[in-house]
Amino acid sequence: MHELILTWTEEAIAKSEKIQEQQPSKNPGTVRIGRDPAQCDIVITHPTVSALHVEIFFNPQMQSFYLRNLRPTNPPVVDKISVIEGEVPLQEGSSIYLGQMEFKVVAVSGTEKRVAPTIVNPHQLSTNVDVNQSKESIKIDIDENKISGMVADIVNTDYFQQLQQLAHKSRNKSAKTIEAGAKENPIQVEQEASNVGVSKTPPTRPPETDADGIYGSMCLNCHQIAPYKRDLWCTYCGTSMATATKVLVKPRNQ
Q1: Is the full-model pTM beyond 0.70?
Q2: Is residue 206 pLDDT above 50, yes or no?
């Protein structure tokens, strides 16, 4: 038998009422609380309580007692929540306010606490499966002959043959590049000389001075004049001095 014990204090007198699942009442199936003795099973005389305020009943599907509001303009407060309409479950320790009157649910017996179902993510579930257990419980039959035939069909296609040829050429090209990079590069003088079409051997320069005076070298790219030395590159722009023009910088008689 499911039952609920409700307690309260009225005019300094402690009172209690036992509400059972199939308890006889003025409204079968529910126990009503309010000021009107003609409609209510539990009569409260406090002026803040409505004539027909609430009713308590047992829900067999949810296996729990519920409180339903019957006075929307004077809603009860259950566990600090105002119940303007509808119904709320009651449990041991629940606090109920009807106006300024406080009621306590001190005991609930014969009921089962219902726990909300847990929704499990199927992806999360699969990651938690024991690997060894899954190996034993899941068996996959593989037709090796069928797989071999499928592989052969792919390998024999023209497209696959073209891919193999491209891969072979790419490997050969990479090998040649690595081999060339391992060799020592030609000296830069020879590269520059070959670009301008002159001898790879640096030219023999005349002495810095002669009977006419002091000479310098004029770069054909930036036209800057540098001291006449055996410099291979212009100190201003970096151009090869192999084709530099010899210019008289200071005559002898000056």
Answers
A1: no
A2: no
